[in-house]
Design brief:
By secondary structure, the protein is mainly beta. It has a single domain, classed as 2,3-Dihydroxybiphenyl 1,2-Dioxygenase, domain 1 (Roll). The protein contains four helices and 22 strands. The chain has helices spanning about 20-30, 75-80, 165-175, 240-250, and strands at about 10-20, 35-40, 40-45, 55-60, 65-70, 90, 100-105, 110-115, 135, 135-140, 155-165, 180-185, 200-205, 215, 220, 225-235, 255-260, 270-275, 280-285, 290, 295-300, 305-310. The longest helix has 13 residues, at about 240-250. The protein starts with 7 loop residues before the first strand and ends in a 9-residue tail after the last strand.
Length: about 325
């Protein structure tokens, strides 16, 4: 029996409107991205992977989140998407990178682009990963660490977080139409495990059965605010996170929280605010899970979401 769901291959990019493309590019270069293309009104930034771009910034009179894009597995997935209520037709992408897309609007009013056939670029070189030597598990014999003080290169975009006013409806919509399943739930101290109406957040991953995948590709949070809470970008390892942290400190950019290790997903994080107030994250060492994973119903408080390191400020949990 064929799967009626639209099959997402990966997160492609998030897009923002900002008032100064030069300033945004200066920050993103320090954050670890490289320019892929730029027009009079749009900046496309890439990581070291083959994706043409993983971040889009459009020039405008105000600063705001525009939407997120997923790359789908086949063109047939675009055909399925175009049949959803409110969906656009399949349209050619006339911007750098090319391909085709369908535009959707989620129940929470968020713009979602589904894309297929975009151009890929040659991958960029990176240094080797520095494994850690632990007692009883020595992963780095005869391999000294020589981490330079430099910009930490972004590998790829890994996930983003949506804030909506009706999270149960948003989660149901994603689960109904896409190949995603829940990994963990944020219930909070007053939530009841297993009761969607009291669930503050749902981490969702790609549904690939026994194949191990990232703990989440999207997190949907109940909030009085709307839009993107943060976009997250993978870096090589712990040394990359810390080196990137101190480079951004030296450049005078605004730290939000980090570095530290989350409880859910276990990833090591480092959060920054771009010049327009958008939160972006360097991360490494996320959990990889499959169908054998048992979801966690997290009932702790905000202070329990960090296992070690600089905890996020209260504004992080709005």
């Amino acid at each position: 029996m064929s799967d009626p769901r639209i099959h997402i291959a990966e997160l492609a990019y998030t897009a923002y409107q900002v008032t100064d493309l030069d300033l945004m590019e200066r920050f993103l270069v320090d954050f670890g991205m490289k320019r892929s293309a730029r027009t009079d009104d749009t900046l496309y930034m890439r990581g070291t992977g083959g994706a043409h771009h993983i971040h889009v910034a459009r020039l405008g009179e105000t600063n705001r989140f525009l939407g997120g894009a997923f790359r789908v597995e086949t063109r047939d997935d675009l055909v399925k998407a175009a049949k959803l209520p409110g969906a656009s037709a399949i349209t050619p992408i006339t911007e750098p990178g090319g391909g085709e897309r369908v535009t959707l609007t989620t129940p929470g009013g968020q713009t979602l682009w589904l894309e297929f056939g975009a151009e890929t670029l040659p991958e960029l070189p990176t240094r080797r990963i520095y494994p850690l030597n632990f007692h009883g598990s020595h992963l780095r014999p005869n391999r000294p660490v020589r981490q330079k003080k430099e910009i930490t290169p972004i590998l790829r975009i890994g996930h983003y977080v949506l804030r909506v006013k009706d999270a149960p409806a948003e989660v149901t919509w994603f689960k109904t139409h896409f190949n995603v399943v829940a990994s963990d739930y944020i219930c909070g101290r007053h939530g009841k495990p297993g009761h969607p109406e009291t669930t503050a957040g749902t981490f969702m991953r790609l549904d690939r059965g026994q194949e191990f995948v990232d703990h989440h590709i999207i997190l949907i949070n109940q909030s009085h605010l709307e839009g993107c809470h943060h976009s997250s970008y993978e870096v090589l390892d712990l040394d990359a996170v810390t080196t990137g942290h101190y480079h951004l400190v030296a450049q005078g950019w605004q730290l939000d929280a980090g570095y530290g290790r989350h409880y859910l997903g276990s990833l090591i994080y480092d959060y920054w605010l771009d010049p327009f107030g958008n939160r972006v994250e360097h991360y490494t060492d996320t959990d990889l899970v499959n169908d054998d994973y048992e979801p966690v119903y997290f009932t702790g408080g905000a202070e329990d979401t960090t296992q070690w390191g600089m905890a996020p400020p209260p504004s992080f949990f709005d």
